[in-house]
Write a structure and sequence with these properties.
Helix content is 38%, strand content 19%. The protein is built from 10 helices and 13 strands. The longest helix is centred in the last third of the chain and has 26 residues. It has one domain: 2-enoyl-CoA Hydratase, Chain A, domain 1 (Alpha-Beta Complex). β4 and β5 form a beta hairpin. The strands form 3 sheets. Strands 4, 5, 8, 9, 10, 11, 12 and 13 form an 8-stranded mixed beta sheet that branches. Strands 1-2-3 form a 3-stranded antiparallel beta sheet, with no helix packed on it. By secondary structure, it is α/β, with parallel strands linked by helices.
C-alpha cells in the first residue's frame, strides 16, 4: 500500500537551532548535545516519532493518514515529559482525547518503543486508550521494545503487533527501592535524626537507617500496584492471573510473546496498518474483541 522508511531527520527544533546559532557566533563555547528527531515515513508523509512535549517542538500533535491517527509513544514514559525525549503522559492523554473526538479519525495506531517509566500518570493514560478503543479501533505496533508500563498501556489496545521476532515484550511487574545510606554517613561521622509525623513519613530519608517496617510498607505498595497491573492485563488480553504470575516479570521475545498471548502477531508496519484500516471499516460498536478475550479467559 505504501513504502515504509525509517531515517534520521536532518532538522532541529527551535531550541536546538538557537543553541547551534549561539555556538556559531562563539565557537569557543561548548556545543550542547543535540538530539535529532527520529521520523517515520508513511504514505508520503513524514511523522516525528520523538515523544517530546510541545515546548520541544517535535510532537505537538498526531498525524492522520487514511483516517488513521498515528500516535508515537517513544522513550521512557513520565508525567510532564522532558526535553531529553521522554514520552509525556499529559501530552499523550490530550492526543488520545483529540483522536477520540475528531470525526476525521476513524481509528488509531499507537507506535510504541518504550521500556516503561514512572507510575504517575500511567493509569490515566491507559484510561484514555480504553476510552478511545471503546469508540474507535485502536491497534498497537510494538517497535523493538514494549515493556513494563509501556506494555500496561499496550494491553488496552484492540490488537498488539510486534515488528519482528527479536522485539522484547512484557516485563509485567512493579519495582521500587529504598536506599539506606546510614552506614556511609556513620563512617563520615554524621548521624541523621529523622523528625517526622509518622514512622513511614521519613522512609528513604538520606542518611537515615531504613527500618524493616518501612521496607514492609513499600512492599505493600508495590504489591498493590502490581495487583492492579495484573488485573488490567488479564481483563483486556484474556490471560489468566495465574499465567501472568508465572511470567515473573520477565521480558520475552516476540515469538514467545505470541505463544503467551501477550501480542497477537509479528508483522511489519504496513501489514499492521492495513489490518487496522480493514478493522475500522467494519467496526460496529464498542470493542467487540473484549468479549472474545473474556471468553478466552473463562475457557482457561
Amino acid at each position: 500500500m505504501f513504502d515504509q522508511l525509517f531515517e534520521r531527520a536532518l532538522m532541529l527544533d527551535d531550541r536546538s537551532a538557537s543553541a547551534v546559532f549561539s555556538w556559531a557566533l562563539n565557537p569557543k563555547k561548548e556545543l550542547p548535545l543535540l538530539r535529532a528527531p527520529s521520523v517515520l515515513r508513511l504514505g508520503g508523509k513524514t511523522i516525528s516519532i520523538n515523544c517530546r512535549n510541545s515546548g520541544g517542538g517535535f510532537n505537538s500533535g498526531f498525524s492522520v493518514i487514511d483516517a488513521v491517527a498515528v500516535i508515537p509513544v517513544v522513550g521512557a514514559i513520565f508525567k510532564g515529559g522532558s526535553s531529553y525525549g521522554y514520552a509525556d503522559t499529559l501530552e499523550l492523554r490530550a492526543l488520545l482525547r483529540r483522536a477520540r473526538i475528531d470525526d476525521s479519525v476513524k481509528s488509531a495506531l499507537l507506535f510504541i518503543d518504550s521500556p516503561g517509566g514512572g507510575l504517575a500518570g500511567i493509569a490515566d493514560l491507559r484510561k484514555e486508550i480504553v476510552d478511545l478503543e471503546a469508540k474507535k479501533a485502536c491497534y498497537i505496533f510494538a517497535e523493538d521494545l514494549c515493556a513494563s508500563g509501556a506494555y500496561f498501556l499496550a494491553s488496552a489496545g484492540r490488537k498488539i503487533f510486534a515488528n519482528n521476532s527479536t522485539a522484547l515484550i512484557g516485563s509485567i511487574g512493579v519495582s521500587s527501592s529504598l536506599k539506606d545510606s546510614s552506614q556511609m554517613y556513620e563512617n563520615a561521622g554524621i548521624k541523621i535524626h529523622p523528625i517526622a509525623t509518622g514512622a513511614m513519613k521519613s522512609a528513604g530519608l538520606e542518611g537515615a537507617k531504613v527500618t524493616s517496617e518501612q521496607l514492609a510498607h513499600v512492599r505493600e505498595l508495590v504489591d498493590s500496584v502490581f495487583e492492579q497491573f495484573v488485573n488490567a492485563v488479564s481483563k483486556t488480553r484474556g490471560i489468566t492471573r495465574s499465567s501472568i504470575a508465572t511470567m515473573d516479570g520477565k521480558l520475552f521475545d516476540a515469538k514467545q510473546a505470541v505463544a503467551l498471548r501477550l501480542v497477537d502477531g509479528i508483522c511489519g508496519l504496513d501489514a499492521c496498518f492495513a489490518e487496522l484500516k480493514n478493522t475500522a471499516a467494519n467496526f460496529g460498536g464498542p470493542n467487540g474483541s473484549a468479549a472474545q478475550r473474556q471468553s478466552a479467559l473463562e475457557r482457561d
